[in-house]
Amino acid sequence: MDLQIRLDQERGAFTENDTVSGHLFLRTKAPVNISTITVRLSGIATSRLSSGKYIESHQLFQRVQTVFPPHRVAEIPVSRSLTVGSGTHIFPFSLTFASTSECHKVSLDESKPSPSCIGLLYPKNKTSHILRRLPPSTGDTLSAWEVKYLLDVTVVKTGILKGSRNILFYPVPDFSLPKSILGRRCLLPIGDESISLSSPLAYQVDVELLNGQSLLLGYPIPLKIKLTKLGNRECFVWLNDFQTMLVGTTETYASGLVEKDTQFRVIQTMSNIHHVVCHDRALTGAELSIGDNLWSKHRLPIALTPSFETCNISQTYKLEVRLGLQSG
């Protein structure tokens, strides 16, 4: 007996509330007695600490459909199995992704081996879980953390026949960009003297993210950089170096323990620019902006894993903007 899963949408990724539909092809060379055929769509977030010594899995959601026997036949009080003739039999299925996590906890502590605990669901009050948007498919079986979505088929007969395939899931942002601006401010000293807000030898440097704490994959970083002259000393100020870098932090939890992993990804780096920001005749209090043409052509990689949080995995980012300013 052979089992094959074919999806109506074979390429691309699914997102929230999308429907995974297709057909099961069951081929038999001889008649066979079958009790049930079920299809299950599920998502699992797995964290592994200390090289796999501690493992914790959370079932994000689950949808199940019985495709055999037909509903009208299942209600008839007959034998527990039905005979399916030889040949190819086709069963349609249709299951829909959840919009948010519906987590039930699975604890797998390999320091205390117990075959019965594999795949065993331990009921837990849902209020203790993080029930947020489903995270994207990411990671692999060799990494410290993994999020995967599976389509499983189970054929119950004399013995059990199973088949499965991975489903790629990627959430689509449906939020409105915040109107608030996230900014950082510092002072740029001119010379070696001590600097204060009243010093005639300082510039105020403001770096702002126009979309607040939101960055969109595949888009430029919405930066605004300006200098404000605080004193009356005449001098040139120019931008010599510029770099933007994302610092990603992944926290994984298992058995009450936590591990952190930090990744650095340079988005753009430039040196020896000699881009003049302020000339020697700028007035005190003048605001001088650095044009976004320096960074507007550089986009965030579309393949980055976006920020997300489940009960046992958290992915967050910080943006570092480095400016090399010189004066003279």
Description:
There is one protein chain. The chain has 2 domains: 2-103 and 130-167, Immunoglobulin-like; 182-191 and 200-327, Immunoglobulin-like (Sandwich). Helices cover 1% and strands 52% of the residues. It has 1 helix and 20 strands. Strands 4, 5, 8, 9, 10 and 11 form a 6-stranded antiparallel sheet that branches. Strands 15, 16, 17, 19 and 20 form a 5-stranded antiparallel sheet that branches. A 4-stranded antiparallel sheet has the order 12-13-14-18, with no helix packed on it. Strand 10 (145-157) and strand 11 (159-167) form a beta hairpin. The chain starts with a strand and ends with a strand. Residues 105-127 and 194-199 have low confidence and may be disordered. Residues 4-101 form the Arrestin-like N-terminal domain.
Give the mean pLDDT.
81
CATH topology grouping of the largest domain: Immunoglobulin-like
Number of domains: 2
Low-confidence stretches: 105-127, 194-199
Strand tally = 20
Task: Specify the overall morphology.
Answer: elongated
* Strand fraction: over 45%
Helix/strand order, N-terminal first: EEEEEHEEEEEEEEEEEEEEE
Helix proportion range:
under 10%
Radius of gyration, taken over Cα atoms and rounded to an integer in Å: 29 Å
Summarize the structure.
This protein has 328 residues and is mostly beta strands. It is built from 1 helix and 20 strands. A hairpin with a 1-residue loop joins β10 (145-157) and β11 (159-167).
